[in-house]
Amino acid sequence: EIVMTQSPATLSVSPGERATLSCRASQSVSSNLAWYQQQPGQAPRLLIYGASTRATGIPARFSGSGSGTEFTLTISSLQSEDFALYYCQQYNNWPRTFGQGTKVEIK
Amino acid sequence: EVQLVESGGGLVQPGGSLRLSCAASGFTFSSYRMSWVRQVPGKGLEWVANVKEDGNDKNYVDSVKGRFTISRDNAKNSLFLQMNSLRDEDTAMYYCARERGRFVYWFDRWGQGTLVTVSS
Question: Nearest CA to CA, how far is B109 from chain A (Å)?
């Protein structure tokens, strides 16, 4: 099983600042990596797939990069609605596995 | 509008059974692979099972193999998860998720979830 490790566990950022979230895979997943956002009490929402392709309706301030084992989600200028939990997930191997999440909180 | 609505969760004793349902609308259900993903309250996400478009190929995470069965009824636009021999550690919110892709698949739409609590 591929283990996905996200860092940091919590990221404190002021509105308008940039947030950089990291995700590392225990072995290569090529570019088969997705990012999801989860608000409290809600289901996850797809942000990024293919490591860098924004899903439909996702604002351009969200960007993804990386391949192999190292991936990054960048939120260029945090808006109030962006404070949430973020998960990475690999879909290159079975079983599909998620990282433990990064909480982006208001500083 | 794509909608996935789960139902069937509830409180069940260890060793008991439960059948979850997911009603799909707003898209051609029979053209998509579907999955169940669960989340222990306050914890991370775990993929549980998936089924191909025609229902003939299924995959499971090791921890539920032999206990859970995923199925679908394309005529009724519905996805199911039969859960038997339930354990305390199966307590979680269960989400129905649509898969999208080609050769490899990610989860592009999620339902709001149904809560399963296994407790005596």
Answer: 7
